[in-house]
Amino acid sequence: MRPWFRRYGPAGREAATRLVCLPHAGGAASLFRTWGGYLPPEVDLLATCYPGRQERIGEACRDRMDVLADEIADALLPLSDLPLALFGHSMGASVAHEVALRLNRAGAPPAALFVSARQPPHRLEARPEVDDGSIVDDVLRLDPDSAVALRDPHLRELVLPALRADYRLVAGYRPGPLPLLDVPVTAYFGSEDPDVSPAEMREWASVTTGEFRSRGFPGGHFYLTPHQAALVGDLAARLSAWSGQRRPGQVRPSRIRATEGR
């Protein structure tokens, strides 16, 4: 499971579903460290550890979507003995969608996809690569709580490499037409998010032939922090409703895809 995933909470025999969470640009697995307290024992909570941060600080960051999604999907295949549900916030929503497509192609489709605070693929607009100052300004605009780390010179130098790589990944991600999923998709959003509108979030319905739902919360891009209990409670209720409806298929022992440039 390591180094890609960190388990928050016990994984007992009662576990029936794995909820795999993928953080935002510059984010880390610790974003989800308290979620286990709001989930029933039937849900095994795994937070994704991107390279280049926390205990993987010494590894090279990934700055291409295809490379990152390939590696995460490869790491998840051995864990698909239970149905996998994916939750991604902001950049993590795009990563979760790409991972879901790869799992589907490998014969282990996810049980559900949850996306948060990110436009669907067909709505993504071109973004130029930006310098460090612009990255810091953008992060502070969306998440003022990050000011402590970004204004401390030592901490800033620790977090900037991951931010640079993630912003490069986002700028270079132009997916074009993608295959449809056939899984339930739920879109979550903050009603005052300056980067994505409720209407854009509802357009995630176009990525699946399965059931689609959306739910908004008061707040901006990081609405999920003050509304953590309500958000995770909603996730748990939906997972319970869908539990057992889809089971993963036979998983090939091979990797998802050998991507050039690793």
From TrEMBL:
<dbReference type="InterPro" id="IPR020802">
    <property type="entry name" value="TesA-like"/>
</dbReference>
<dbReference type="Pfam" id="PF00975">
    <property type="entry name" value="Thioesterase"/>
</dbReference>
<dbReference type="InterPro" id="IPR001031">
    <property type="entry name" value="Thioesterase"/>
</dbReference>
<dbReference type="InterPro" id="IPR012223">
    <property type="entry name" value="TEII"/>
</dbReference>
<keyword id="KW-0378">Hydrolase</keyword>
<feature type="domain" description="Thioesterase TesA-like">
    <location>
        <begin position="20"/>
        <end position="243"/>
    </location>
</feature>
<dbReference type="GO" id="GO:0008610">
    <property type="term" value="P:lipid biosynthetic process"/>
</dbReference>
<dbReference type="InterPro" id="IPR029058">
    <property type="entry name" value="AB_hydrolase_fold"/>
</dbReference>
<dbReference type="GO" id="GO:0016787">
    <property type="term" value="F:hydrolase activity"/>
</dbReference>
<protein>
    <submittedName>
        <fullName>Thioesterase</fullName>
    </submittedName>
</protein>
<comment type="similarity">
    <text>Belongs to the thioesterase family.</text>
</comment>
<feature type="region of interest" description="Disordered">
    <location>
        <begin position="243"/>
        <end position="262"/>
    </location>
</feature>
